[in-house]
Amino acid sequence: AAETVCSGFIPNPYISYTNCTMSGFISNWTELCCQPTSVQNIKPVVLSIIGIVGIIGTVCNAISISSFLYLYIFPERIRRKFGQEFSMLTDDPVFLIILHLTFCNLLYCIGGLSSYYNEYYYGYYPYSEAMCKYSAFF
Fold first, then answer.
1. Which residue in 40, 48, 20, 65 sits closest to 113, CA to CA?
2. Centroid of chain to Cα 118
3. Mean pLDDT: which of 114-118, 124-128, 130-134 is highest?
4. For residue range 16-31, what is the model confidence (pLDDT) as tens digits?
5. Residue 43 near residue 32 (C-beta atoms within 8 A)
6. Whole-structure pTM value
7. Following CA atoms 118, 123, 129, 130 in sequence, which dihedral angle do they give, to the nearest 10 degrees?
8. Nearest-CA neighbor of 7 among 28, 33, 31?
């Protein structure tokens, strides 16, 4: 169906197509033109990869953040229960950098990958053009 409607249309990645969002529709246009057929053909593979990366990334980053926070918040309990001291680890500035990186990665797995998933699932971005720009900034 997309081949007959979008014949002769070559998408330009540097142009914002208004009809590829849910705001500002242009007549004589369809959302089927938002993705080339080569992208539409691999849609199940891309959706699977995005889903797997999103789930694994969210779980692993949540576990890492909770482990780091446990080390930082409960040093007395760890020392009493396990006889270990991790203050050298938690006082190191690299600890905060890794915690920040893990937190940013978690935000990307939740917010960034979900926008890609929506775009590949629907064939266009199902929210407004402003939301598309904000999610790209995010």
1. 48
2. 10
3. 114-118
4. 666 677 666 555 566 6
5. no
6. 0.75
7. 10
8. 33
